[in-house]
Specification:
The chain is mainly alpha-helical. The chain is built from five helices and two strands, in the order αααββαα. 52% of the residues lie in helices and 8% in strands.
C-alpha cells in the first residue's frame, strides 16, 4: 500500500514545472530535470505515465517538450497521485486532531 512515494512527489513537481512553462511554450525533459533535481530517466517513466493518463502531452522535435493536456485548474492533486501510485489508499489511523480529521474525511 503506497501512501506518498517519491514517484508521486516527483510527478507533482514535474506537473508544476510543466504548468509554469505551458503558459509560454512546451518544456523539455532536460529543463524539468534541471529545475526539479530529478534524473531524466526517472522523469521519463513518470511523464510516460502522466501522458498515458492524459494529464500531459508531448511534442517531438527541436522546439518540442511537454505541456499540460488541459488547463492546470482542471488537474487535481488526486488525479496526479492516482495515476502514479496505482495503489493509493488512505490509512485507517484515527485522527484525534479535528482539523486533520476533517482534511482526511474529505
Amino acid at each position: 500500500m503506497a501512501l506518498l512515494s517519491t514517484k508521486g512527489v516527483y510527478g507533482l513537481a514535474a506537473i508544476l514545472q510543466i504548468a509554469k512553462a505551458s503558459e509560454v511554450a512546451p518544456i523539455s525533459i532536460k529543463e524539468i530535470a534541471e529545475r526539479t533535481g530529478v534524473s531524466k530517466n526517472y522523469l521519463e517513466q513518470i511523464l510516460n505515465t502522466l501522458r498515458n493518463e492524459k494529464l500531459v502531452c508531448s511534442i517531438k522535435g527541436k522546439n518540442g517538450g511537454y505541456h499540460l493536456a488541459r488547463d492546470a485548474s482542471e488537474i487535481t492533486f488526486g488525479e496526479i497521485f492516482t495515476a502514479l501510485e496505482k495503489d493509493l489508499r488512505m490509512t485507517s489511523i484515527q485522527m484525534s486532531d479535528p482539523g486533520l480529521r476533517a482534511f482526511f474525511e474529505k
